[in-house]
Amino acid sequence: MTKLENKVVVITGGNSGIGLGIAQEFKKEGAKGVIVGRNQETLDSAVLQLGDNFLAINADVTNVADLERIFKETSEKFGKIDVIVANAGAATLGTVADLGEADYDKAMNLNLKSVYFTVNKALPFMNDGSSIILIGSIAAHRSYPSFGLYGAAKAAVIFFAKAFSNDLLGRKIRANVITPGTTDTPAFEKFVPAEQIEAVKKHFASEIPIGRIGQSSDIGKTAVFLASDDSSFILGAEILVDGGTTYLAK
Question: CA 189 to CA 16: how far, in whole Å?
Fold first, then answer.
């Protein structure tokens, strides 16, 4: 018997990067359910990799009506939901001198408001005893240049794991947060010229105490643990999956 046999999962941002890595590990452990994203091409590609037990829904997590549709469609297709992974997010880079109100709203809508309403809209469709997995960032713990808004949003997400767990004690729904460090995802391609990517990855690896950057599967395996009964006594917790960066890096 696999750890997540027949559990119904919803993973926002599940079409690439960390979200897809989580979906792939969930698939190995017998889960079924939905991945959510905004890019139809990567959604189609991801579903081909995941197989018949997964459905892709094209939706915008900053749109509350879209969130309601996600969970309604999931429930109609698979039944009640057992695991929510609120993974969708992206950094808005810039300093307090550079970023204005529109930038602030964009960053908070995607990285904080969407997390709150992902959980809020999922709850009517979730089984008691379910697991909510939030995705944090080491930017919430270490101040990196131009990551102020993103780090602040992720710090609030880390607090949400405690608050949601407290709010949902009566339903025995657990919320926990995984905080990744630098992870090998397509996000590198958005910020780094193609010819420099490998050199940048090697530089990051040299700065990480364990000596390598993370893989999506590292996050995925941790998510499997938090989604399964193996973590039934863990709630409101943060698990750092960062190769030692937060506490050990100089």
Answer: 13
Show the beta-strand stretches assigned E in 62-141: 81-86, 126-135
Closest CA to 132 of 170, 92, 162: 162
Q: Which pLDDT value is given to residue 191?
A: 76
Catalytic residue among 104, 116, 150, 247: 150
Mapped onto helix, strand or coil, the DSSP state of residue 250 is: coil
Strand-strand pairing, 81-86 and 54-58: unpaired
150 is a catalytic site residue:
yes
Nearest-angstrom CA–CA distance, 52 and 172: 30
Give the per-residue pLDDT at 246: 96
Two tokens, residue 186: 């397509």
Residue 195 CA to its chain's centroid (Å) = 28
Q: Indicate the pTM of the whole model.
A: 0.97
β-strands 174-180, 54-58 pairing: unpaired
CA distances from 128 to 124, 125, 168, 173 (A): 10, 10, 9, 6
